[in-house]
Amino acid sequence: MFCYWGDDVRAGFGLVKPDGVKKTTSGVFFCSPKSRIKQLAPGKGLVGFVRGEGNVSVIRVPPAGGLQCGRLKNLELKDKIRLMSCGETQAVLLTYAGRSFWMDKHNHCRPIKELSSWNVIQVVCGDQHCMALTQDGHLFTWGQNSSGQLGLGKGEPSFLSPQPLKSLCGIPLAQICAGGDHSFALSLSGSVFGWGRNSAGQLGLGDTEDRYIPACVNSLTFKKTVFISCGEEHTATLSKGGTVFTFGSGRYGQLGHNSFRDERRPCVVGALWGSEVSQITCGRHHTLALVGSSKTIYSFGCGEQGQLGNGQRTDQCVPFPVHLPPDANHDQSVEQIVAGGNLSFVLCSQQEADNSSVHPESNRGRGILTLGDRMIDRWISECDSNQWRTIKKEIKRVFSSEACLNASFLKKSCDEHYQTSTSFSGLDMESVRAAVKRLAQKEKVLLEVGKIVEKDLLPSLGSTAVGAEALRVYLILPEILRVLNKRLHETKLTVELASALLKLNPSMLQALVKYWSELSDDFLKPLVKLFHKPSAHFVSQRTFNRQAESSDGHLQNLVHVLQMLYKVSCSGKRKITSGDFVIYEINVLFEILQTVYNNMQLNRYPGPVALANKQYLECTLALLNSTPCIFNLEAKCNLLKLRQVRTCFRLVLRRSALLEDCFAQLRTANQTALKGWLQVVYSEKFEETDVNKRDFFLNVFRTLLEPESKMFIYNDTKTLIWFPAEPSLQEESYFLFGCLCGLAFYNNSVVNLPFPLALFKKLVGIQPTLEDLTELSPVLGRSLQYVLDYSDEDVDCLDMTFKIIWDNKEVELDPNESGKVVTSSNKKEFVDAYVDYTMNKSVERVFEEFKRGFYKVCAQNVVQFFQPEELRGVMVGTEEYDWSILKKNATYEELFYARHPTIVSLWEVFDGLSEKDKKAFLLFLTGFDRVPILGMNQVKMRVRPLLNSTEDHLPQALTCHSLLELPMYQTKRTLEAKLKEALYHKRGFWEE
Question: What sequence ranges are listed for the domain HECT (predicted)?
């Protein structure tokens, strides 16, 4: 049965004889055409009928009050038509084979040649513009662009031929829709994009500004939208479960909100709430909704031409049922409702249909191609048959399209993919991995996939798509490339992927990083390996091959992606370690560069080849300078040495005024001078004597850190220090102290700097935590953790407020609320405020002076290469003493050798020393009593005879060379006595 109502038209539209048309008292006409109507396509001045056998008839419908309705005309087309969409005077037709035709105002049809090579699956028309969606997810628009309805950008002209809409490239679209002068697209996961005319808010964006490119209707995010219909100036959407939203012009009541005002944002049609609407459709100024379970059609909006089907010709702002013929309510099921112009239509059938979740093909169209198990199984089983040519075409359609891949592998359980956002991909990664594993079962298929990915997909990536769903391809591709790289042993695909990633606009790239952070280690670790392997390859290639300079951009992109992944791996407890990111080939690069430096120092006038080689290697390092994660600690220390200026910074000091002279010269030194090699000179009685800088640092820090200096406060165990909240010294003292610490770091000198890790975190811009406060004050830290761990119902019994005592000072942690009580709801706020005050606010002025002094000497970008633990280790050293390594690495000069009696006695005496005496020996030998961060291997002890010495002489040491000068004692007992005496003798800078 075919029902219609609205504008006066030819009886039955000419589908049946006039006497075959009946009319209800409410003005609904109904008839039973001999040929089944498969699809109705009403436009502003045109109605099309697609018959069951694929034939098409059209009839011209003039505006209300215009000329008489035209005659029904059959279109002469050889192709069978599946879908049709009508505009004001024109139409677009779509065949079963995916070919598209244009019908002009004279009913003449011609193929749309620009779409001839595309398999089109959906077509829609606005008043004067059209859209077409292809099987591989590309969207084309053409026609009038007066209000931006083509979505091609502001200032773009109208186009007679289809133009690709690039801004939606990669979004897996489920439906396209056009209104008068506005357009919509709906993604598979329910994202709604609108563009074009917005004079009444019909785009649902909260304003009335026209949009010239697609904009996401954020108000409909997570609403599980499954269908959109557009009127001339209003829009309706249907959510899974049957909720209807409308927005735009409400002038005729077509929004159904019991008012005649416009709505700029989507609002639920309250009268239909809970009715489980199964279909919606918009006419020019009216709306229809079908509740399939009850076979009830509701109408609202303009009724001037009777298009509401209620027997009235008045506007209606609340949905009311349409009075259908009795047969429609009893013997038949409502198959399809359609509104267009000032007309309304219903198609009924004898067959029962589950209308609760079905949308007619005319509205829904076919979906874009997706990759599934059946398709993969067919490829694998038939690839060796005569079907291979067809399979190759299918592989190309799927794997050349971002949209098709993004539409595959969705998390459909519990409709999870409808929650897709910039923090949730909606992608089932286990399904992705399983699919790739199945593809790999047949190498022929896998290699064809690789060919298409390389040739078509990767070059198209890096778009500025407006929706998060476009990012899924960047999660799918690594799984494909991981398997392909194993088979092909190539890295170029990964290189192209890295380049595409970095072409994404910043907000999309940030969303992708968020997706990475949600990956399990099983997926994140292979992702790291995917980018790590070619990075190492390019570093090695550049180190040994001067012709590899063309790889500069590739290398920079790869390590940039690695650095982003490193930050992701640090954001949670992961099995991935920092070692998974380190490129050890960089250490080889440093070794070669150091050899070049050494050779150049031997040759006062190095030739152009040597200079060019040096410049090339330094350029390679410069490519990597923004990615600390690929440097291990040894490489970072080597990088620090390279940054040192080859000039000298000379400190001339009096023994009696050590700090006074030191601070005076630091105060006046310029930044460039401080970056030179430090030389410390002792001056007295018109004589100058060089002093080893390690001895200088040892003694100057010992003086500064004495409690009598009052520069710092000590913790309860007197093992760690922190800045005072109310310093008794001038703030400049902390600036100069910072300069001294910077000099020690810059000159690779281990110093006694017993600060908690919090200091080194703050230097590299990382906020201290409760764990850091606990290191400084274990009792306080445990107490605060106890508060956090306390059961909520018992916290109120602690009788605590936000008032604390710190450094003998009473402080309100919340100055806006004096005496604020700690409760179960704000206990974390209390602990966070406590940590923030003690570690940050209380020491802000003093620490900033220290930091300013430190960075006057050290380049901030170099320091931030180090992790806080590494920075502390470089400056303070470690206590991982391995004396066997010291002994193993010792070398002997002149008369000494490993089995020399004096050397044998030396090590026998050393083995018998206490741990305290061994540390004193290390201090005597090197100038510091802690192990360098890179381990005891860094201490290269040398031993030689002390010439012209007697049994009365003490051993001597040149700390800058780790050189021990040892008299040839006759007995082991004498050696032991003299060595112990030397270890605690006045030495270095203070030696009289």
Answer: 694-992
